[in-house]
Amino acid sequence: MSTKNVKDAYQFKHKHILGIEQLSVADIFHILDTAISFKEISSRSIKKVPTLKGKTIINFFFEPSTRTRLSFEIAAKRMSADTFNIAASTSSATKGETLIDTARNLQAMNPDTIIVRHGSSGAPGLLARHVEASIINAGDGTHEHPSQALLDMMTVREHRGTVEGLKIAIVGDIAHSRVAHSDILGFTKLGAEVRVAGPETFMVPGLDALGARVCGSIVEAVTDADVVMALRIQRERQDDPLIPSLREYSQFYGINHNLLQKHARPDVLVMHPGPINRGVEMNPDVADGKGSVILEQVTNGVAVRMALLYLVMGREGGRG
Amino acid sequence: MTTVNRLILQNGRLLDPVTGVDAKGDLWVEDGVIVPAQKEIPENSEVYDVHGKWIVPGLIDMHVHLREPGEEYKETIKSGTRAAAAGGFTAVACMPNTTPVNDCASVTQFITKAATREGSARVYPVGAISKGSKGAGLAEYGELRQAGAVAVSDDGLPVLDSQLMRRAMQYAGSHDLLVISHSEEMALSRNGSMNEGVVSTRLGLRGIPAAAEAIMVYREIALAELTGQRIHIAHVSTGAAAELIAQAKARGVRVTAETAPHYFTLTDEAVGDYNTNAKMNPPLRTEKDRQAIRKGLQDGTFDAIATDHAPHSVLEKELEFDRAANGVIGLETSLSLSLALVRDGVIGALRMVELMSSAPARILQVEGGTIAQGNVADITVIDPEKRYVFTEDSILSKGKNSPFLDWELQGKAVLTVMGGRITHNELT
Ligand SMILES: [Zn+2]
Question: Keywords assigned by UniProt (chain B) (predicted)?
Fold first, then answer.
């Protein structure tokens, strides 16, 4: 069987997008190819196609996230779907309403897709078992954030033509980052070497089992790197002190121009899942420098999310 | 349930770790006491041929949660002891984390009375170490002892204040009470919902490192050495803790320890896709820990197998993993899972009976644990070959939260006798 036949025979079979873990390499390529075809729509003067007309999408955010929610909402609207935002606070949970109760209530509104952001790892999977709608994970706990990883892969692929063989450094709070988690799974699936670095308090056991190369220093991580991604540093926690101060962190782990010039490839791509703490995990000279693709990540985010919405529920409808 | 005057079990394999007996034979019971066999079988005797089956002292589970008073929707003394009898247990020790906490004589008496009235197994209440299990101030051990408590524990929570734990051991010693430690360094386990390791990283769940257990186990050992008193370490889950206990025992510290069937059967992989029926505290650990626990059962590091039977309703379990309650039921699977150790050659049959009956009786200083003549007729008949699928429908506990649902298990209690009274019977 030729490669072309294999490609023709491919069918996207996922009802839900719960994580990169469940996606095959073929699935990822299919999503990225679909996203590229949708990206063009966003550059038209009338940025709207009727593909998902009549479909109902609920944005169900248990955690505040303006950026991801907006990106999904724009994606849905560009495909003419009806979108509803539900910002469920965890207070309804403390009132005794369980996630499954909430899911049953949502189900009563007959949505086609529910986009879920939740503070508990695994919550989207739990929902998927209790509702009829497709579930798209928009970030669960410290587990996965698949649409973010897909837009990262899309961005790198657009610039390098391929992901295979690239060296990708992710620097910062790996332990608490669902973005890092999904990126490690995704990029390694596509054949890249993913290096992670940061202070030991930002590491957890088993990152190597996920496929990452755990580096002892930031220099080791960025040496000859094709891509350097910095993660957002949360403010220092009082209950579990991970770093002494943002000031010290920026001094030893902040990504700056000198570091990249000295060690990374000259054409290194600089990425960040946003929003950036300028001067903490990344210096402005890098964030706004020539290798920065941070804004493209945002643009690609809409395209990837259009692709995901289309693939989980628009398969039978025509593409506009 | 029938009360019989005379019960005769014929042609079984008699196993008694206390006397060292492992031989084919008959067992006679008259008026609740084990008596010598006679030549003629008198009329009105209840006779069972238990050829191919084991006759062992009634199993004793020294660590269960019966949820009554306060959370009767999860379990009652009646349903919990019914499940115990079905699992081959003639006695259980119940932890004090009820509502209210069993920290005074009136709650202890409530439990013993309910057990006498409607129990299918003996129930030995465990009182609280501290008032309300709040970790400050000793509960009244003298009164608890008089009311029927056999031990004290703040189980569910560690005693964080080391001085309080020291005083607890000393004062419990004065009242001949055992102190049972739930060993957990809370600062390390805070917000954790499973073992810290490769699986927690994959699932994005906050982990509980093995050190959280080992640190507290070491403190308890140090305090037992300081006070010269007894300490019993509950539900050991890690190889690190097992090693500390083995070392302490070797230098003569008065420490005993139990582990649970889930720790020698499962690993943290059982959490799978956020299966809350595999969520407990301490959590399921790694394969290396599992092997260390099995070795500890073999070499005497562990004195007892206890279940930490912790029934919950679906309300507490059908939740996001990090919000779901800790705990699994265990009374009805413990024997089958322990028999697997015998089949695997990890331990012998006598050792298994010691771990599940004789040793708990000795540690708690209660009757049972032997089928020698003149002793109370607490007896379990085991069919080591019987195969069955453990299904939700078959569970007698009100809790269905087991990680072993739909497992095919081998070996089962087919007759349970408490004080001469049959409490569970699959022979007829
Ligand atoms: Zn405990």
Answer: Hydrolase, Metal-binding, Pyrimidine biosynthesis, Zinc
